[in-house]
Specification:
Length: 129
């Protein structure tokens, strides 16, 4: 993906001015939603190191893996609770759309986020059917 391409997170901004700057560590996410969007983009472009680095140390797995046959095709933010720059916790409910060898699918989750050392981290989430 090129920096001038539309960001996978759906913001309408070029990838280079949106999530890529977060992936490169040039700036930090200022809200839980921004972190959620950047993590989705990281999955979409295969930057699993960023996904691991933004996972709360208390809950993150030893290794983050991805299904190589999965192509992420869109993100919908459904709801946010707190998660602003002045908050310490937040929740983001989303639907992440994908395509795989069996067709199209959707991952629907309400994710929890927390601030640690003045940075937002993904803590965990509840999946919906």
């Amino acid at each position: 993906m090129q920096a001038s391409d539309a960001c996978p997170c759906g913001s309408g901004e070029p990838f280079g001015r949106c999530c890529l700057a977060l992936h490169r560590g040039e700036r930090q996410a200022s809200t839980a939603e921004q972190l959620m969007r950047s993590r989705y983009s990281a999955y979409a472009v295969g930057d699993l190191d960023y996904v691991w680095q933004t996972w709360h140390p208390r809950t993150r797995p030893a290794v983050v893996t991805s299904d190589s046959g999965l192509q992420w095709t869109g993100l919908e933010i459904l709801d946010t609770v707190d998660g602003r720059s002045e908050d310490q916790t937040g929740e983001v409910e989303f639907r992440a759309h994908y395509r795989d060898g069996r067709g199209n699918g959707t991952l629907h989750e309400r994710s929890r986020f927390a601030v640690r050392a003045r940075r937002w981290f993904y803590v965990d989430g509840d999946l919906f059917d």
